[in-house]
User: Which sequence fits this backbone?
């Protein structure tokens, strides 16, 4: 369920983590997809562990900072372990830029006064 809250993953990035361990139960592929997105968005590794019974839709695995699976368990309902050597050199390339961008570098590019950019009051 944690994959539904991007602010948690952003906080891990601010804490300068190298890898997040995400254990979940996902009988679809949504949480696995979100784990890859969080890995890429925040520039760290995510170990995604789910139950073997859900492996057909979303096998466990480890996503790299580029958002691609570095390794995955098989798609059958057999218990397995995924391992990978974590290489931290790629993390340092994106993190400084992301932190600068999130600190307000683009604040002057925000469009004000355009009704299409206004939030709806639904």
Assistant:
């Amino acid at each position: 369920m944690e994959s539904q809250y991007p602010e948690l993953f952003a906080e891990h990035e601010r804490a300068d983590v190298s890898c997040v361990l995400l254990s979940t139960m996902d009988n679809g592929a949504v949480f696995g997809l979100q784990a890859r997105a969080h890995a890429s968005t925040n520039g760290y590794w995510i170990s995604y562990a789910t139950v073997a019974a859900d492996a057909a839709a979303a096998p466990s695995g480890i996503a790299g900072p580029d958002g691609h699976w570095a390794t995955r368990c098989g798609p059958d309902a057999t218990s397995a372990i995924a391992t990978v050597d974590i290489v931290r050199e790629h993390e340092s390339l994106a993190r400084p830029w992301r932190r600068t961008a999130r600190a307000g570098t683009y604040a002057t590019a925000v469009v004000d006064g355009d009704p299409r950019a206004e939030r709806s009051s639904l």
Summary: The longest helix spans residues 91-105. DSSP finds three helices and four strands in the chain. The CA atoms of residues 64 and 87 lie 9 Å apart. The chain has one domain: 2-95.
